[in-house]
Automatic annotation (TrEMBL):
Keywords: Periplasm, Signal, Transport. Belongs to the bacterial solute-binding protein 1 family. This is Trehalose/maltose transport system substrate-binding protein. The keyword Signal applies. One of its GO terms (biological process) is maltodextrin transmembrane transport.
Amino acid sequence: MSRLIASFTLAAGLLASASVSAVEISISCSALGKEYEICKQGVDAWAQKTGNTVKIVSTPNSATERLALYQQLLAAGAGDIDVFQIDVVWTGILADHLVDLTAKGQGEIGGHLPAMAETSRVNGKLMAMPWFADAGLLYYRQDLLDKYKRPVPQTWADLTETARIIQEGERKDDKGDFWGYVWQGRAYEGLTTVALEWIASYNGGTIVDEKGEITVENPKAAEALKTAAGWVGTITPEGVLNYTEEEARGVFQAGNAAFMRNWPYAWALAQGADSTIKGKVGIAPLPKGGADGRHAGTLGGQLLAVSKYSKNAEAATDLVMYLTGEAEQKRRAVEGSFNPTIVSLYSDTDIAKANPFIGDLADVFSNAVARPATVTGQNYNKVSTEFFNAIHQVLSKRSQPEQALNRLDRDLKRIKRNGWQ
């Protein structure tokens, strides 16, 4: 009897110990496309493995609105979110509120894409871990290129002409709402990424160069903006001025556009069982600004960081290391077409079978254009806001490119006056 009582006592003690050690971790996951579903599967697997629980906190799809929410929470020292999904350009902005992950992540970071690893560091400290990589891509309807006997566009002039030809042809076939090209034109961070691609493709620089010099006011940048503004109302709907990623994808996936600029996440959705364009889509690097231009996709992607105000920072860090690890990145690549940040996964046969294009994207990421977040530091958000507002004025025909760039140059110099950091 005493042995039985001892067994019950031991079991009760173990249960009590488990309940005391188990914690609830909250994580912010984007709900863009399949992100919420794929994130939930990952955190549920970690929860089952560790005995902890995870709560997903929904955040705005707009990157600009999400950053504002994060800044509000962190400035107040709130512990509502333990693990933050952050854009690659936010590390410097939020670093003062994040846990230094160097001790846990230093042994792993060397296996990640160098460009992504660089976005995770601030002053040599590892303030986040790379989760998935992104770069802007051109999506196209292969069936329509075949129908109209047109090649995949290599320059913006090629795209403009091909989009016009296909748009006119499809509208004659009673598709009155068909458009040539859709992209992200709302005044938000997404427009910064898109417009930077246009300007860089014309060799017009990256807004602010690596030395901190403001370079955006130049003839090549003006030419790029003039080209893009010419699309609005011709091959691109005027409504694009309020499009984010999902509005553009909605039009393209409904079969109502020949071309789309978007991130890699849209591939898996375009190939989904309920997609009207399944099996009809191809992807390619974004067009060059001309014969002497370059293919330029803006480096995007997301990192995971731990809040300095988390009451369970150790468990939160463990969740970050699990989600950014090789096995989980592979699962996300296979099931959601999220591009890994771990270099070895680009030659993984299972990933290649599920999403053949991922293996071809290593070069796109290696040559991706970085936003000037590192050099402008805490001021990056101000720089980006001035930039996308100036671009939006050009696209909406409220300003000529040269005028807008001149004002932008003046406004950026004002921000820089006391130093970028």
